[in-house]
Design a protein that fits this description.
The protein is an alpha+beta fold and 98 residues long. The protein is built from three helices and three strands, in the order βββααα. The chain has helices at 39-50, 52-68, 78-94; strands at 8-13, 16-23, 27-33. A three-stranded antiparallel β-sheet has the order 1-2-3, covered by helices on one side. α2 (52-68) packs across α3.
Amino acid sequence: MSATPGPWQVVADDDGLYILMEANAGKDAYLAVYASENPEQREADANLIAAAPEMDDALDKLIFELDSITWDSQGPPPTLVDALEDARAVRAKARGES
């Protein structure tokens, strides 16, 4: 199953912060963010969650492009190999595959 497509945005009302996910043929869906008592941290959490669809797309593009590179006999730099493994792992985690 795939996640609700983006874009998502942060909205606020008197009760707190919410992630607005516009999906389901124009029907709005909301996700409340109450993870922290600190309003600045709660807003940072909401912004991070709202950016998830775009981050997932960017990660897909980055992994695809790096996998498409033909390296010389020495291969890619070890730090790039580690970063690519981390990117694949976090993408799998976000998709519930790990």
